[in-house]
Amino acid sequence: MNAPGYFSPATGHLQQAADFPILARKIRGKRLVYLDNGATTQKPTSVIDAERDFYRDANANIHRGVHSLSQHATDLYEAGRERVRSFLNAGRSEEIVFTRGTTEAINLVAVSWGRTQLKPGDEIILSGMEHHSNIVPWQLIGEQTGAVLRVVPISDRGELDMEAYGKLLGPRTRLVAVAHVSNALGTVNPIAEIVRQAHAAGAKVLVDGAQAVAHQAVDVQALGCDFYVFSGHKLYGPTGIGALYARYELLSAMPPWQGGGDMIRTVSFERTTYADIPQRFEAGTPNIAGVIGLAAAIDYVQGLGMDRIAAHEQAILAYGTDALARLPGLRLIGTAHDKAGILSFVVEGIHPHDLGTILDTEGIAIRAGHHCAMPVMTRYGIPGTARASLALYNDERDIDALVAGILKAQTMFGKGGKHE
Ligand code: PLP
Q1: What's the pLDDT at 160?
Q2: Probe ligand 1: pick from 213, 371, 372, max atoms within 8 Å of CB?
Q3: Separation of CA 102 and ligand 1 centre (Å)
Q4: What pLDDT score was predicted for residue 37?
């Protein structure tokens, strides 16, 4: 792949929509304007082909076979692990465990680490902007262990109150679990600083990177976090695959959380001994094709360059923020200084679901609702927002279409002001 060829010499912007076959689709006779990337991204041809080619040419089960196909499939699978390691800049490939996605990775840590490490009265600090998948697993484990949750409040702009965070940290804090980027607000949290303070208090840190990995380079060693989790499908990869990064010392001390084939060393009815990491956490046949597709997705974004993707999305975010801010009756929810490409908003007099439905008639896909972050909605006193979330293939035309669609909805609802 020739990365520079993907940038328009005129604008410096990425010009790669052609890599994503679905973007050529018409929706209700209109050009598809896909702005629901926070939910899932579209897939480039290289990812689709990698999965197909695996099933056509290399399919076999891994780790167990003596035959060539099985060994080849195992090599491809383990090469995928190495690709994730280098993508996150983890120190060792054993620190990477494949999971179904972010949700499963958090549950793995909650069950395996939490059940053995947490005692009654221990504290887990979460932020007020967490996705439900970084809240509920901790509540479940709290019910079993007696550990309690503490929540860092968020400001009107949607930034973490770092002073309050400093005060919440204490000798009982065992874990801080926080999103790298908020899916409802777009806020990019100051992870390195959060980690520094947590470690000074003797606590571990889990970072939910679901909304971060597709939008900026991530270096787990530079962040210093103990656990980092993400989903492949939000990174132009397949659904049903994701990864957990866990520091070697921590992961090697953690017990299995699911039992089955591939995670054992020896089994008898009296006693079972377990495999080394990471196999200890990958019971049963994994999503082999998913790993191969995820590796292709990583190759794709790295071919373009994470820094260039980030710069492109920041330019579209600035353009979109400006365009939406000029619409009468529209309020942006989440105006943090450090933001990723998420535009969450409410429009006076129009329910987000109605807005989403009207935009769909124009071929524009956005998300409407609480975005699995109900506490954020409660914080702002709203039932939900409309959310346009960006990816590397979005451009100014998509924002212009969104603005035109909102104006149309305002006219239909009799709320139309003039676009200043
Ligand atoms: N965390 C955040 C911040 C998210 O945005 C999401 C998905 O929207 C998740 C976790 C859950 O990801 P998955 O459903 O892929 O497990």
Answers
A1: 98
A2: 372
A3: 6
A4: 98
Rg (CA), the chain: 22
Q: Comparing 107-121, 124-138, 406-420, which segment has the lowest mean pLDDT?
A: 406-420
372 among known catalytic residues = yes
Ligand 1 atom with the shortest distance to the CA of 133: 10
417 pLDDT more than 60 = no
The residue nearest atom 8 of ligand 1, judged by CA position, is: 39
- Over the stretch 386-397, which tens digit does the pLDDT of each residue have? 999 999 999 999
- Let me know if 140 is exposed, middle or buried by CB neighbors in 10 A (0-12, 13-18, 19+): middle
Alpha-carbon span 82 to 63, nearest angstrom: 16
In angstroms, rounded to a whole number, what is the distance separating the alpha carbons of residues 151 and 173?
A: 12
Cα 57 to averaged position of ligand 1 atoms, centre (Å): 32
Cα–Cα distances (Å) from 106 to 84, 135, 335, in that order, read 17, 10, 27
pTM above 0.85, yes or no: yes
At residue 17, does pLDDT exceed 60?
yes
- Of 220, 116, 97, the residue nearest 174 (C-alpha): 116
- For the ranges 10-19, 22-31, 117-126, 257-266, the lowest mean pLDDT is seen at 10-19
The answer to whether residues 237 and 43 touch, using CB atoms and an 8 Å cutoff, is: yes
Whether the CB-CB separation of 209 and 177 falls below 8 Å is answered with no
Q: Is 206 helix (H, G, I), strand (E, B) or coil?
A: strand
Task: Tell me the backbone φ, ψ of residue 10, rounded to 5 degrees.
Answer: -70, -45
- Ligand 1 midpoint to CA 71 (Å): 33
Which of 412, 408, 357, 352 lies closest to 384, judged by CA? 352
What is the number of residues in the chain?
A: 420
Q: For residue 234, give the ligand 1 atom closest to its CA.
A: 15
For the chain, give the percent of residues with pLDDT over 90: 93
Nearby residues of 328 by Cβ (< 8 Å), 6 or more positions away: 410, 417, 418, 419, 420
Pocket of ligand 1 (CB under 6 A): 101-103, 131, 133-134, 179, 183, 208, 210-211, 231
Which residue of the set 39, 140, 217, 372 is catalytic? Answer: 372
Residue 32 has pLDDT above 90, yes or no: yes
User: According to the model, what pLDDT value does residue 416 have?
Assistant: 55
